[in-house]
Amino acid sequence: MEPVNIIGAGLAGSEAAWQAARSGVPVILHEMRPAVGTFAHKTGDCAEMVCSNSFRSDDDVMNAVGQLHWEMRTADGLIMSMADKHRLPAGGALAVDREAFSQAVTEALQAEPLIEIRTGEIDDLPTEGSWIVATGPLTSDRLAGSIRAVTGTEALAFFDAIAPIVHADTIDMGVAWEQSRYDKGETEAERRAYINCPMNRDEYEAFIDALLAADKTEFREGETAGYFDGCLPIEVMAERGRETLRHGPMKPVGLTNAHKPEEKAYAVVQLRRDNALGTLYNIVGFQTKMKYGAQTEVFRMIPGLQDASFARLGGIHRNSFLNSPTLLDDRMRLRKRPNLRFAGQVTGVEGYVESAAMGLLAGRMAAAQARGDDLGPPPFTTAMGALVNHITGGAEAKTFQPMNVNFGLFPPLEEMRSGRKGRKDRYPAYTQRAKDDFRAWLATQ
Predict the structure, then answer these.
(1) 108 is in an annotated binding site
(2) 409 assigned to a ligand binding site
(3) Is 8 annotated as ligand-binding?
(4) Helix axis angle, 64-74 relative to 423-443, nearest 10°?
(5) Closest to 50 in 3D by CA, of 351, 279, 363
(6) Of 47, 214, 216, 277, which one has the greatest count of Cβ atoms within 10 A?
(7) Which structural domain range is residue 169 located in?
(8) How far apart are CA 144 and CA 82, in angstroms?
(9) Gap between the Cα atoms of 82 and 101, Å rounded
């Protein structure tokens, strides 16, 4: 049987390889790391998480991301299986020990007899064979050039920013306290999953002033890009208005200062555990393009972080993606070269889970074709189906931008078109319909 070749062993490529192999089809997984590195990656492991350690909400009743988690688990997804094994307390979110997680994914792929992992860069799109391109936002320049040559169009681009990580033992817990927003979580550990640093109004205003005045990373000559709203650098948010941050990642709602319960914070900076030992915490929503020296000065203005030591400072990188509505069919194949499928962030989905989900579908579709079958996408009443529909035709090509999964991508329920029912009724109805339809789709395979 002809193997499925996959370029890129990130979350999408790893999931695609797992799904194809579990369908009985041999896989060759090509990964350029560690032979060819990137500034953002630190290891040669598969499914390395660069920007954050969170897969976001795990609520599969009221949240579209949680529904996507459910679909991936139901489809025997490797990424969700390893995430569950290496999860950390994070309230209602699914966060993982990122190093243990990526090592576990790597070991699972290495142990699968139908998967061969080859190290080395693929710098040109192959003309023959079955291939899945899952190179992510850091596609190498040479391969990106080949993609542009084949598609006949420039890939779109935006800049994605990385949040800093703090050593836990340098956080002043006499100022900060542990609490998840609204005490969310089923266990005490989940209800205390975040470290919170409060600011009064004067501290917040001084912080905004410093943030706006700080030295920023400059784009290289000739580079232009827009930012994805779900991953804006904090200084860009601050430029949109002085109150933007306290209504975004620094919102104080749902939190009570354990040291001064009678005082309401004007703004709160949250940190989320980044490893199982609890020795590292990332600053939630604090993606930044500030230069390193400026970051340490500005972030140490945060009460509780005045003596903080940083395991990693923030960064910024170019993130490339296709104008998929004009280029891909609903089997995620390049219309001009149907031997090529694309998966992951390069297709224009945003987020770890969304990227892995597109890998899951691409892997199953490629495996079906290798067996002489044809597998269509799930109904777009499901989370996966809604994403595929969006990137392969549901979105407006002229204004196409990366998209997280959300209920706005789901078709409305007929009985709720009147708008008289609120979210508490609509969201469970969306997710129940999605579960029923996804199970039916799986049963056809």
Answers:
(1) no
(2) no
(3) yes
(4) 20
(5) 351
(6) 47
(7) 162-315
(8) 30
(9) 6
Residues in contact with 311: Cβ distance below 8 Å, sequence separation at least 6, in sequence order: 165, 166, 167, 280
Rounded distance, CA 224 to CA 156, Å? Answer: 10
143 annotated among ligand-binding-site residues:
no
**Is residue 296 located within the same domain as residue 168?**
yes
Closest Cα to residue 228, out of 294, 291, 156, 315?
A: 156
- Find the CATH number of the domain harbouring 360: 3.50.50.60
Task: Determine whether the annotation assigns residue 83 to a binding site.
Answer: no
pLDDT tens track for 164-212: 999 999 999 999 999 999 999 889 999 999 999 999 999 999 999 999 9
Peptide bond into 34 cis (omega under 30): yes
**What CATH number has the domain bearing residue 297?**
2.40.30.260
pLDDT tens per residue across span 124-180: 899 999 999 998 777 777 888 888 888 887 666 776 667 899 999 999 999 999 999
How many domains does the structure of the chain reveal? Answer: 2
